[in-house]
Amino acid sequence: MAMVSMPFSVRSLNSHNLRPTKRYSGMAFATSRKEAVSVGVKITTQGEGHLPKLVLTSDGGSEAEIYLFGGCITSWKVPSGRDLLFVRPDAVFDKTKPISGGIPHCFPQFGPGKMQQHGFARNMDWSLVESENVEGNPIVTLELKDGPYSRAMWDFSFQARYKVILSTKSISTELIVTNTDNKPFSFSSALHTYFRASISGVSVKGLKGCKTLNKDPDPKNPIEGREERDAIIFPGFVDCIYLDAPKELHLHNGLGDVISIENTNWSDAVLWNPHLQMEACYKDFVCVENAKSFPAT
């Protein structure tokens, strides 16, 4: 049995506050059958399209929403009430397609390939298996297992567990993929994170020196290069993979927020903004994604 763990954390910062994120653990369990499954955690069927969602609230006043369909975090509000994530206006909540926005899963395939775009994890119902509250911070763990839908595309037995920890100034996740099959498999993956932004003022810092695979103009034949800029801006269409990315990036969202994006075991970063391909909303978001863009075993 093989297992891969990939933690990820984002924090709302000001320029003088670069403290490490605290990590918590505990063993309190609850079931998803109750409306309030743990202190600071509620499950409701009053999400968009009447889909079930979790609402997490920390003692510090931050809040997050997670839909069980796709295991998708759709909202992360800091104590001031500002939502730092973005859901596209064309998003649908009827299970006919993945939720377009927030933090969708790309698993077990990132991008195009042998199966549908970005795999199947964002198209399936995840289940709530654990819930707890540690020092005022709600923690939930979602689970996805193989079934007929996934096996029709990818004939392996697996277990994916996704832990989400909400604290006052940060939201942290950990994705653990376990091979429960009797044969090995490999996969690629990403957290396709949409951040609320004013694109004309956006910059991303921390990627200087990284090898790049630029998917503009031809995503099927990316151009290799090396990032030379201290701060990456978005004057037009951007779709670029940064290989062997550092463990921390800083996103200036153009709205006055500085967001620290930290990761462990996500080897790459992806920057994306569709520009005029999504004329109705491209000015309002930017994707800064943690990825393992080439297969992990």
Task: Provide the descriptors you would attach to this structure in a database record.
297 residues; mainly beta; Beta-galactosidase, Chain A, domain 5; 9-stranded antiparallel β-sheet; 1 helix; 22 strands; 1% helix; G6P_1-epimerase; carbohydrate binding
Question: What do these coordinates show?
Answer:
This protein has one helix spanning 148-151; strands at 3-13, 36-38, 41-44, 53-57, 63-67, 72-77, 105-106, 127-134, 137-145, 158-166, 170-179, 187-191, 194-196, 203-205, 211-214, 223-226, 231-232, 238-243, 248-252, 258-263, 268-273, 285-296. It contains 1 helix and 22 strands. It has one domain: Beta-galactosidase, Chain A, domain 5. The chain is mostly beta strands and 297 residues long. The relative contact order is 0.19. A 9-stranded antiparallel sheet has the order 8-9-10-11-1-20-19-14-17, with no helix packed on it. Strands 7, 12, 13, 15, 16, 18, 21 and 22 form an 8-stranded antiparallel sheet that branches. The radius of gyration is 18 Å and the shape is globular.
Which CATH architecture? Distorted Sandwich
Report how far apart the termini are. 11 Å
Question: Could you name the CATH topology?
Answer: Beta-galactosidase, Chain A, domain 5
Q: What is the total tally of β strands?
A: 22
Q: Let me know the average pLDDT.
A: 90
Q: Can you tell me the CATH class?
A: Mainly Beta
Number of helices: 1
Poorly predicted spans: 14-36
Structure class = mainly beta
Query: What's the SSE pattern?
Result: EEEEEEEEEHEEEEEEEEEEEEE
Characterize the biggest β-sheet. Answer: 9 strands, antiparallel
How much helicity do the residues have? Answer: under 10%
Determine the strand fraction and express it as a percent band: 35-45%
What is Rg? 18 Å
- List the domain count as a whole number: 1
Strand arrangement, major sheet:
8-9-10-11-1-20-19-14-17
Q: Tell me, briefly, the overall form.
A: globular
